[in-house]
Amino acid sequence: MATNAQQVNGSSTQASRFDPNFTESVINANGPKAHPRLARVMASLTRHLHDFCRENEITIDEYMAGIDMINRAGQMSNEKRNEGLLLADIFGMESLADEITHKLASEAKDAPTATAILGPFWRKDAPIYKTGESIVKGFPEGDHVMMHGKVTDFDTGKPIENAEIDIWHTGPNGLYESQDPDQPDMNLRGRFYTGPEGEYNFYCLRPTKYPIPYDGPAGELLQLLDRHAWRPAHIHFIVSAPDYKPVVTQIFDRRDEYITNDVAFAVKESLIVDFEPREGDSKAQFELKYDFKLASYEAARKHGMRDAVGPSE
Ligand code: DHB
Ligand code: FE
Fold first, then answer.
1. Global model pTM greater than 0.70
2. Which of 10, 26, 100, 155 is the most exposed place for a label (fewest CB within 10 A)?
3. Ligand 1 and 119: CB distance under 6 A
């Protein structure tokens, strides 16, 4: 039986062809005052990365090609484009971290709204609208949707007044406003605030499937791996309120052909929705009801949701 590279060179063999002490000497470079969580995570990352290099016998040329790709992704990124996140997302890393985060949060009797990846197209300071207004500034010919629902506390069931709902989605041409010079600034982006019963409603368009940008390192990798670039039709949300952990999520159109085959692996069953036909409203052909449930920071702590380590800690 042929032995593969993993058995010969990976951590699973007793006798690696490479310096057996190297990985531990890198990990042991940390001092005694290292942040405990970070030291643990970085030791693990170092072991996995070193094993990866040994297992695949990564050469300097291959390594430099990878570094070059990371640098190009960084150089291409700015306020409107997050190529680094795109690159990581096509390997499902953000979706996996999201699954872990949600799992920790949902080990309670009820659960907050399922989270989903942020993706690279959120912009801060989207326009603030009043209840019942529309975020559609371009594409008047699109399929308009009246979306409505409630924001409540998942633990107590109480409505949350003044919760912020930040929304963004692509136009019918499959482009976010920030990718498309022909759309008005901040088209299809907006923020709304809930009323006393936690209620909200606004108008948007029915979203369409679309391919992620193909002109950078992420597109290059998808091509080399013979993968498609499509995301199913979705609308993004960040729902937040004082003393509550914000929910970053997306909802997905059940009818979309890519619903089971998302390039970014972000679809969850509880986030799949049905757009219903709407009668008697000259402003919308479709209606969508969706309720959001938030966890207070206190409940989040109770259920073990962990935030990132920052330099100030
Ligand atoms: C990704 C996510 C999105 O929501 C999107 O519109 C494009 C790309 C991503 O995670 O890569
Ligand atoms: Fe998106």
1. yes
2. 100
3. yes
